[in-house]
Each structure stands twice: as structure tokens, then as C-alpha cells.
Design goal:
Oligomer: heterodimer
Number of domains of chain A: 2
CATH class of the largest domain in chain B: Mainly Alpha
Bound molecules: zinc ion
Order of helices and strands of chain A: HHHHHHHHEEHHHHE
Largest interface: A-B, 33 and 48 residues
Largest sheet of chain B: none
Strand content of chain B: under 5%
Order of helices and strands of chain B: HHHHHHHH
CATH topology of the largest domain in chain B: Rna Polymerase Sigma Factor, Chain: A
Radius of gyration of chain A: 33 Å
Number of domains of chain B: 2
Number of helices of chain A: 12
Chain lengths: 235, 183
């Protein structure tokens, strides 16, 4: 065998892909030809060097955060696409199995915080019919075309008198837990609840205000727009 | 391994979200390593890994199981890496287009170089490889895949996958020629 011929087979030989019938004669050539044997050994060393090249190990925190971060992306994707009935969302739903009161409660908190804390330019309407709403809010109420105004359902935030019922999207609601259930029936609440549950699962110690802060500006606007479209008033 | 993957996928498709968690935990390191070896950048590797698993999540119900799950997964990862590289996102930690160091035989063999320099020289050489060659190399050397599987991942014929691999090895051999003696 000539050296030129052997050289073309060296890589396949190193790669263990050289057909058996050519393997024997190539190995024989290497035993008698120093030049080709050196070349063969250089390829072996090169591949050993490549194989030994390590990927820098990320920090342990990187791996702790990898799956939660992925879930966040998946949640975000689900939120963005709003494809609620696709098969691929079945698994997503089962990630978070919470009691319905919890979801509703979180949704209430979310709505309250969203309006009261995170959207300072959008003030809640005073729910008490005996109190006079601040002038600015009256004006806002008049200006909105359909008269629909969002307000905080959180009793502490709005100093609502206990025992007085709300009407939420045409439904009479007389206590906070029923209010929560009514909010839960609004079509968009599952989305916000899902989102907040994810945040809660990932960082149970964090402040709910931070969960809301995790919404993008666009998402907050979407929520706000939806909120505006529901009529909140007293019975 | 393959049965275990399919079992997890079945569980996930029946609505068990924890099965997807298991699938991710089981595969996250190899996915990250492949992405890192392709992009040569930790941040890109993280982004690509996350994007790839997101894509897996969205398309798992469409995975036809004609290949192993890992082949399908790697195909997703490599495609995302190729997109990343084509977009020319972040620079690698070393300059990709930098020409190889001029070969000066008097300048000492590999045995005299510090380990760090040797690794840098290899890394620089790998970064000069076209993405398809880089993919063939790492899938062969680090993931021990058959050329047939690599071909499936890259969407090329087996012969083309082999050519990519052999070109990659030859190119590295040339670029690291000055390190030959000690290697
Ligand atoms: Zn020879």
C-alpha cells in the first residue's frame, strides 16, 4: 500500500469506520511506515484533546433555576398565545394543583395590587354609595364611554363597609369570599392566577406585589383593559 | 433510556406535568453541553437550552417516535443553535474570526505550553469551524452518536454528515499543527 492511499484511510481508521477488508492492510502499512504511523497517532491525540475539552460548569444556582425558569417561559408563552384548549397545555395545568379558593384569593389580591399599587394613574372608584367619590374619579367614570369602571375589590384598600353587596358583571355578591368566586368566573382570571401561582411556587417568600411586577407592561395593559370592560358597581 | 423517555412522554401527554419535569432534569445537562459546544458561549447555551425545551414542550404531542427522543431533542437543539449562530448574537468568549497563530517551529511544542494556552488554542480552532462541522464533531466526539444519527439530526445524508465530521477533524489538525508534537 502506498502512503497516499493509507493517508486517505487514516481518519476512518481513527473513527473506527474503516471497512474490515481495508482495515488489516492499513494497519500493516502503519507497522512499516513511520510517517503514516506518526500521522495516525496525531489524529488520535487530536481527538483525545477534543474529547477532553470540558464545558465550564455553571453554578449550582444555574441548575436550581433552570426548570423554574423554563416553567416561567412556558407560562408566559401560554399567557401570550392564550391557546387555552390545546393539548399541550394539559400538562401545564397539572403542574399547579391548587384549591380554587386559593386561586380566587390570589386573583383578588392580584387585581387589588394591580389597580391600587401598580397602576397609580388608574384610581379605584369608591364603592360606598354613601361616600362621595373623589372628583377625579367621578370625572374618569363619566369619561369612560360605557360607564364601566374598574375598582379594587379589596375591602381594606377601599374602606368598603362590611355587609354591603357588590355587583360584579351583573352578579350580586355580598361577601368577600363570594366576590373572589365571582372574580374567578371572569374569563381572564385563570390566566392571571396561573401566572401568580407560578411566581408563588418559585418564590413562596416573595411579596405579591413583586408577582405583579413580573408582568410585562403590555400584559398589565391587557389586564387593565379587560378589567375596564367589566362593570363594577354597587347593587 | 429510550423506553424511559417514551414512558415519561406518555405520562406527560396524559396530563402528568411532573413527567415533563423529569424529562427536563434528565436531559438538561446534555442539552446545555451540546448548546455550549455549539455556541461557545454560556449565555447563548442557556438561552438555547431554554428555547429548545420550550419547543419540546409545545411539540411533544406531535413527536412521532420514529427516532429516539434524544435524536429528536438534539435536532431541536442544533437547529436553535444554528439559528443563534446565523443571527450572530453574542460573541464567543474568544474572537471567532481571529486567524490561527502563525506556526513557528522554534516556538516550543505543546508540552511546553501551559494547559490554559493549549485549551485556548483548541477552542479558537473549534470556533473557526462552520456550524455544521462543529455540530458533527461534537455529536460524534462528545455524544458518541453514529453518523447515521448525526445525519438525521442535521437533516443531511449520512455521507454528508461524515464529510462534515472529517472536514472538521482535518481543519483542526491543520490549525493545531504547531501543537502536534505534544498532543
Ligand atoms: Zn506511509
Amino acid at each position: 500500500m502506498r502512503c497516499e492511499e493509507a493517508e486517505t484511510r487514516l481518519l476512518e481508521l481513527v473513527d473506527e469506520e474503516l471497512p474490515f477488508e481495508r482495515r488489516g492492510e492499513t494497519l500493516s502499512h502503519l507497522q512499516t511506515c513511520t510517517s503514516c504511523a506518526t500521522e495516525f497517532s496525531a489524529y488520535q491525540n487530536l481527538l483525545a484533546l477534543v474529547q477532553a475539552e470540558a464545558v465550564p460548569e455553571p453554578s449550582p444556582r444555574f441548575w436550581e433555576e433552570f426548570l423554574p425558569s423554563l416553567k416561567h417561559h412556558i407560562q408566559q408563552e401560554a399567557f401570550d398565545s392564550k391557546q387555552e384548549s390545546t393539548g399541550s397545555l394539559a400538562g401545564l395545568r397539572s403542574w399547579f394543583v391548587f384549591s380554587r379558593p386559593f386561586i380566587a384569593g390570589v386573583a383578588v389580591a392580584a387585581v387589588s395590587i394591580l389597580i391600587v399599587i401598580r397602576l397609580p394613574g388608574f384610581l379605584p372608584v369608591w364603592p360606598d354609595r354613601h361616600d362621595t367619590p373623589p372628583a377625579r374619579e367621578q370625572s374618569a367614570s363619566r369619561e369612560s364611554g360605557n360607564g364601566s369602571v374598574a375598582m379594587s375589590p379589596n375591602a381594606d384598600d377601599v374602606k368598603r363597609r362590611s355587609g354591603e353587596p357588590y355587583v360584579l358583571a351583573g352578579e350580586i355578591v355580598d361577601d368577600p369570599s363570594a366576590l373572589a368566586a365571582a372574580i374567578e368566573r371572569l374569563p381572564w382570571v385563570n390566566e392571571i392566577a396561573d401566572r401568580i401561582e407560578t411566581a408563588w411556587v418559585q418564590h413562596p417568600e416573595s411579596d405579591p406585589a413583586e408577582w405583579i411586577a413580573s408582568l410585562s407592561e403590555e400584559e398589565r395593559q391587557i389586564l387593565l383593559d379587560r378589567l375596564r370592560s367589566f362593570r363594577w358597581s354597587q347593587s | 433510556m429510550r423506553e424511559a423517555d417514551f414512558g415519561l412522554i406518555d405520562r406527560f401527554l396524559r396530563g402528568d406535568g411532573t413527567a415533563f419535569d423529569e424529562l427536563v432534569r434528565k436531559r438538561q445537562r446534555e442539552v446545555y453541553n451540546l448548546a455550549y459546544r455549539m455556541t461557545r458561549n454560556a449565555e447563548d447555551a442557556r438561552d438555547v437550552s431554554q428555547e429548545a425545551f420550550l419547543q419540546v414542550y409545545k411539540n411533544l404531542d406531535r413527536f412521532d417516535r420514529r427516532s429516539s427522543f434524544s435524536t429528536w431533542l438534539y435536532r431541536i437543539v442544533v437547529n436553535r443553535c444554528l439559528n443563534h449562530l446565523n443571527r450572530g448574537s453574542r460573541s464567543p468568549h474568544r474572537v471567532v474570526d481571529e486567524a490561527p497563530e502563525p506556526v513557528d517551529p522554534s516556538e516550543g511544542s505543546l508540552g511546553q505550553l501551559e494547559e490554559k494556552e493549549r485549551q485556548d488554542a483548541l477552542a479558537r480552532a473549534i470556533e473557526t469551524l462552520p456550524p455544521q462541522q462543529r455540530a458533527s464533531l461534537t455529536l460524534r466526539v462528545h455524544h458518541q452518536l453514529a453518523h447515521r444519527e448525526i445525519a438525521e439530526i442535521l437533516g443531511v445524508t449520512e455521507a454528508t454528515a461524515k464529510v462534515h465530521y472529517f472536514h472538521a477533524v482535518k481543519a483542526l489538525r491543520q490549525r493545531l499543527a504547531h501543537l502536534r508534537e505534544g498532543a
